[in-house]
Design goal:
The complex is a heterotrimer of chains A (298), B (372) and C (400). By secondary structure, chain A is an alpha+beta fold. Chain A has 9 helices and 9 strands. In chain A, the strands form 4 sheets. Chain A has a 3-stranded mixed β-sheet. In chain A, strands 2-3 form a two-stranded antiparallel sheet. A two-stranded antiparallel ribbon of chain A has the order 4-5. In chain A, helix 1 runs antiparallel to helix 9. Chain B is elongated and about 115 Å long. Chain C is mainly alpha-helical. Chain C contains 16 helices and no strands. Chain C starts with 16 loop residues before the first helix and ends with a helix. The chains are: A alpha+beta (298), B alpha/beta (372), C mainly alpha (400). At the A-C interface, helix 1, helix 3, helix 4, strand 6 and helix 8 of A face helix 1, helix 2, helix 5, helix 7 and helix 8 of C. Strand 2 of chain A pairs parallel with strand 10 of chain B, so a sheet runs across the interface.
């Protein structure tokens, strides 16, 4: 292929417009502002040193949210979910490694900067009142991008149904609206999981750490992890949060990389419009230059 | 209360019998406790039963095996003699009567006249209704007529056993005699039902003594079963429940699990859907003397929809399932891939690559023909 | 441009044995699609909460649209760089693009769990989450499907305007053809813009999965890499389609034209490889490529296919024969396909003890959708003026 000067120039013009896509090459980390929990943020604090694994919270959650029983793993006998799923929004898991054992309560983390709500096309998943991430069926097309996005594997799907819903812990927002606590926090006999204002819980967690440093892993999970979560965790000394199945996300919010690129590309929709203008102009010129009937034939 | 005084009073009535106050109180306490009544109620019951006016009971037998009577007779505390002579006044009972013929019938007429509105009618057995009830006649009267007549003047009516409660075994398909329970025949009347095959005698005793003592009947459920005995399903209080919770089951009769006394659910136990207090109040006070106790699945005899309807080996759905004593692991196993799909995918992929290579070969051949 | 004859319909019988087999395959998949809507996704797919996306997204949508980038790639060459010589390749390229994108849209409708709500995406503007990359993809793909058929519409209008066609069609063509003609410049410009946007976004989608995507694929360059590789794939598909169609329908070859064009995808692949490997090396992730696991293996499969494809395209031995063109293009197309499948499936790891493999109905539905695509292609090239370059071969004419 021979490239003449004119083509080259035109190519450069296009490349110039494409340079609007340039930020994709190396996103600037400060491009996206850091999110903080909303002022009315409510949260939960789970202290693994207190949990006795009674699973009362699981039963209460099922009842409070009208969830069906998950009896697959038990021949139709028990409600015995083996993981979070469309029939289980809250589960007590057991970590066991020789003598090191710990219970772990898994449910939605209600991230400060959730990947799922960045994923959701129509805002079915949103941080609504108290910073609680809830799902609105009318807006959901069932694309499951939220499941791809969530680092904690929380949004679950009703695979068995012809009209599936996304099922996840919504911190019993229907109960909170009535002035009640989330069911799991209300029934916990050991106050291993407690409900409260995010700021209070954070202070409480730090206070527990300071009061008995030997008892705990020296960290409150969720303060900064993945940009922070409204559900905070304390773990037994010697049992890391990764042992408890929580990913090591660092302090960068999960959506940062994608959102920075995307925001740079579509800032004010300037780049697409500019590209369109350039493409249109070039095609128009070529059309005129080609002479003849001047018609652009596809 | 002064023990001496009490003892004297009892001895007046017991008349040299070996049955002491302790035994007597024990039965009343048991009956009261079964009903969830406080201890003072037991004492009051004992007083009533020990008093000169013991509750008068008329016991009618229809289509049945007499098993309920038999189980009542086999209670060890009280034994038969004390029961029918001292706790209640069993004034008419075809099985236990010494009298016969016209003498017996006269007694019944006598009770109905003297104790009208006060006696307790206990019905045992189903009542045939087909062909005007000719399948069961006593003293020339059909069961239907007899039960209607006696019930018309009774103070309280109790249907003991599943046959009297809804028809029981006689009403099982195809029900050739049109057998029905007492509540169906005595429409509009309150009939306390004590289903069971047989019914636990203490449940009967409790109802009778409450009626005699307080003139009232215990709280009943929608099937007129006393709530004190029929609120909870057997599964909830089953002695084998820990095995269920731990997932240890009898696979088939005689296997290792059966010998070790594991849960009988998988052999068809109806405990999870059967409302009864069998596991809490042993029959005749013999611990373990009930189906599950001896290693047989509950057949659901107290439930019209279950007993004699659902095959013994059929397992039932559990409405109040609770998690077993195990925990979900940190990373549950979710990976299962069908070999058929893998094979098909290989086939599709292979076919595509193969088609590509074939096409390129063909293109190669064609290329020689002509080029633009 | 005028050196080439106008595109013409191929003619010939439609219900050939091959067409009947395709129809049978499609028939089976229709039944399975009905089953999928009755029984739900769980019963018909290998999807799970760990792997919410399977081949319907990774292959039908992400790869399918990239395979449908022939029209995009050719539009760049023909309209932006004004290489009119390549015009004969344009219509078939737009047709394959239109079909590829339409099938991708069909696949989305099957894949999404609450299909009846899809209409809400373009309608409920106030609900739009402008942070959602998937929304951008959805809107762009919807728009681009329309644009592609508009770009192709003159082929239909020309036929409908002819004597003897149905009066209603004639009327439609009479009204719409001039409008489309007038609007062709903006249509073409949008047609170049939209793929630039959503092919980038398809690369950006998996960025949100963060750590769940293997380090050899999880990079801020993914959007750029997806864009670059889709253009290379577009040229590859055009070359494959052309060589295949000419040999299948015994038409004069376009080997010389394709040989000249071949360096374009070759250079694009080189750029792709430089960015891809440079990013991995600079970010110190090269070690991941030398581990003993499926991800490292698939990485090398990609690398071999891309480099091999580019090398073949550069080599005159391959470039100048139809067979070589086909094989080289196939390597590039395959490489881009593997790259996409890897990013969405192989590199995606939701955590311990999750696995995904498409279920049999899932695979068959994909196969059926592709069969429908081929059937539509055969029907349209036989009935409408798509393939150009020379008069229709007499052999085919005779079969009419």
């Amino acid at each position: 292929m021979t490239v003449d000067r004119r083509t080259l120039l035109k190519g450069m013009a296009v490349a110039g417009a494409a340079a609007a896509l340039g930020p994709a090459l190396e996103p600037a980390p400060e491009a996206r502002e850091k999110r903080v929990p909303p002022p009315d943020a409510m949260g939960m604090l789970y202290d693994a040193t207190l949990c006795i694994g009674c699973k009362t919270c699981m039963v209460a959650c099922q009842d409070a949210n009208g969830l069906p029983r998950d009896t697959r793993s038990s021949d139709g006998l028990y409600d015995a979910p083996d993981d979070l799923n469309a029939k289980c929004k809250n589960i007590i898991k057991l970590f066991k490694d020789g003598d090191r054992t710990s219970f772990m309560k898994a449910q939605c983390m209600h991230c400060v900067d959730p990947a799922c709500i960045n994923a959701c096309m129509m805002g079915a998943l949103k941080k609504r009142e108290h910073g609680i991430v809830t799902w609105e069926g009318e807006r959901c097309t069932g694309c499951r991008y939220c499941g791809i996005a969530c680092a904690y594997g929380v949004p679950k799907y009703e695979w068995e149904k012809a009209w599936p819903r996304v099922i996840k812990c919504e911190m019993c927002s229907q109960r909170i609206a009535k002035g009640q606590q989330p069911a799991c926090c209300e029934v916990c006999p050991r106050k291993a999981v407690i409900f409260g204002k995010y700021t209070d819980l954070l202070a409480e967690a730090k206070g527990r750490l300071a009061a008995d440093p030997g008892k705990y892993e020296p960290k409150v999970f969720g303060v900064t992890d993945g940009g922070g979560t409204q559900v905070l965790y304390l773990s037994k000394a010697g049992i890391s949060f990764q042992d408890l199945g929580l990913p090591d996300l660092g302090e960068t919010p999960v959506p940062d990389m994608q959102q920075t690129i995307q925001h740079s590309l579509y800032q004010g929709f300037v780049a697409p419009v500019a590209l369109f203008a350039v493409f249109g102009a070039v095609i128009w010129r070529n059309k005129k230059a080609s002479g003849g009937d001047g018609e652009v034939k596809p | 209360m002064g023990q001496k005084e009490e003892t004297t009073r009892h001895e007046d009535h017991l008349d040299g019998s070996s049955w002491g106050r302790r035994d007597f109180m024990k039965v009343c306490t048991m009956a009261a406790a079964a009903m969830g009544l406080p201890s003072w109620a037991a004492e009051k019951m004992a007083e009533t039963a020990a008093g000169p006016k013991k509750p008068s009971v008329v016991w009618l037998h229809f289509q049945e095996c007499t098993g309920c009577t038999e189980s009542l007779l086999r209670t060890s505390h009280p034994d038969v003699a004390n029961l029918i002579l001292d706790l209640i006044s069993l004034d008419y009972c075809e099985t236990l009567f010494a009298a016969a013929g016209y003498q017996a019938e006269d007694v019944l007429k006598d009770i109905m006249a003297k104790n009208a509105g006060k006696y307790v009618l206990i019905v045992e057995g189903a009542i045939p209704t087909k062909d005007n009830g000719i399948f069961c006649k006593i003293a020339g009267k059909t069961a239907v007529d007899m039960v209607n007549e006696v019930a018309s003047k009774a103070g309280a009516i109790i249907a003991i056993g599943s046959c009297a409660s809804w028809g029981g075994i006689p009403s099982a398909d195809p029900n050739p005699t049109g057998a029905q329970g007492a509540p169906q025949v005595l429409k509009g009347k309150t009939v306390v039902t004590l289903p069971g095959c047989p019914a636990n005698p203490y449940n009967l005793l409790g109802v009778v003594l409450q009626y005699a003592t307080f003139g009232s009947l215990p709280a009943l459920d929608d099937k007129a079963r006393p709530l004190f005995a029929y609120t909870r399903v057997i599964h909830e209080d089953c002695p084998r429940r820990p095995h269920f919770d731990a997932g240890r089951f009898v696979g088939k009769f005689g296997d290792e699990g059966h010998k070790l006394g594991y849960c009988l659910y998988k052999t068809g136990c109806k405990g999870p859907v059967t409302h009864a207090n069998c596991s809490l109040l042993p029959f005749g006070e013999v611990p373990g003397a009930w189906p599950i106790g001896i290693g047989h699945p509950c057949v659901g005899c107290t439930e019209q929809a279950v007993g004699f309807r659902i095959p013994i080996s059929t397992t039932v759905e559990i409405s109040h399932a609770t998690p077993p004593d195990t925990y979900a692991p940190m990373h549950a196993e979710h990976s299962n891939i069908g070999p058929a799909a893998a094979g098909l995918a290989g086939l599709v992929g292979g076919a595509l690559i193969g088609a590509g290579l074939m096409a390129s070969k063909k293109i190669g051949e064609g290329a020689k023909e002509k080029e633009e | 441009m005028s050196a080439h004859t106008k595109p013409q319909p191929l003619g010939g019988p439609l219900w050939t044995p091959a067409f009947k087999i395709l129809a049978a395959i499609f028939g089976v998949s229709v039944l399975l699609i009905i089953w999928r809507f009755v029984a739900g996704l769980g019963a018909t797919t290998g999807l799970s909460d760990g792997y919410p996306w399977g081949i319907w997204i990774a292959f039908d949508v992400v790869t399918g649209t990239a395979l449908g980038c022939g029209g995009y790639a050719m539009a760049f060459l023909v309209y932006i760089f004004n290489k009119g010589d390549y015009h004969p390749l344009m219509r078939p390229a737009v047709l394959t693009s239109a079909l590829g994108y339409t099938m991708a849209a069909l696949a989305i409708n099957i894949d999404v769990g609450r299909t009846p709500y899809i209409y809400k995406i373009p309608v409920f503007v106030s609900w739009w989450n402008l942070n959602s990359v998937l929304l951008e993809v959805a809107l762009c793909v919807m728009a681009y499907v329309a644009i592609l058929w508009l770009e192709l519409s003159p082929a239909f209008f020309e036929t409908w305007e002819e004597e003897g066609s149905h009066p209603a069609l004639k009327k439609i063509a009479g009204v719409l053809h001039p409008i489309v003609k007038k609007l062709m410049v903006p249509i073409l410009a949008v047609g170049v813009l939209l793929p630039s946007m959503h092919q980038t976004s398809l690369g950006a989608l998996m960025l949100l999965a963060g750590q769940k995507v293997h380090g050899l694929w999880q990079t801020p360059f993914a959007p750029l890499l997806f864009l670059i590789s889709c253009v290379a794939m577009g040229y590859g598909v055009v070359a494959m389609e052309s060589t295949l169609a000419t040999s299948l329908f015994r038409r004069p070859r376009e080997t010389k034209l394709l040989a000249r064009m071949a360096v374009v995808p070759a250079w694009i692949v080189v750029v792709y490889l430089v960015i891809r490997t440079g990013d991995i090396i600079v970010h110190g992730r090269l070690g991941l490529a030398f581990q003993l696991n499926i991800q490292a293996f698939m990485f090398w499969v990609e690398m071999v296919l891309f480099t091999g494809g580019a090398a073949m395209l550069f080599s005159p031995k391959f470039r100048e024969t139809a067979k070589g063109q086909f094989q080289a293009s196939m390597a590039v197309v395959l490489a881009g396909t593997v790259y996409r499948m890897d990013t969405y499936l192989v590199a995606y790891n939701p955590g311990k003890n999750w696995a995904y493999f498409p279920a049999v109905p899932e695979l068959l539905i994909t196969v059926g959708v592709v069969a429908l695509e081929i059937m539509a292609y055969l029907y349209i090239v036989k009935r409408y003026p798509i393939l150009g370059g020379a008069a229709v071969a007499p052999k085919v004419r005779g079969a009419e």
